[in-house]
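In response to reviewer comment 3 from the previous cycle, which asked for concrete evidence that the modeling workflow produces usable outputs, we include below a single protein chain processed end to end. The sequence was submitted unchanged, and the resulting structure tokens are shown without manual editing.
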Amino acid sequence: MGETRDVLAEIRRDLENYVGKRVRVRANKGRRRIVEREGTLEKTYPNLFVIRLDEQYQNRRVSYTYADLLTAMVEVSVFTDKEPKKLQYSASSAS
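The workflow returned the following structure tokens.
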């Protein structure tokens, strides 16, 4: 249990470095429905993070938990200078 909590804390610290950066989110909504959107990582909170979607979505905000990233229900790619960098996490990455 403590190991999972450590991984979630690591994910949060990692995402805090990308606040204000452009991201692409790929979310599994179940029943083979995958939603892919782009926006800006707006804020991180103790249990979730918020992404402000692009104007085509009327500046909506969506939030996901760090556990969503850990279980791969949500994938986040951060746009860097060259190509989007996909952030990947696993329960065994707490070392």
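The chain has one domain: 2-93. We consider this sufficient to address the reviewer's concern, and the full set will be provided in the supplementary archive.
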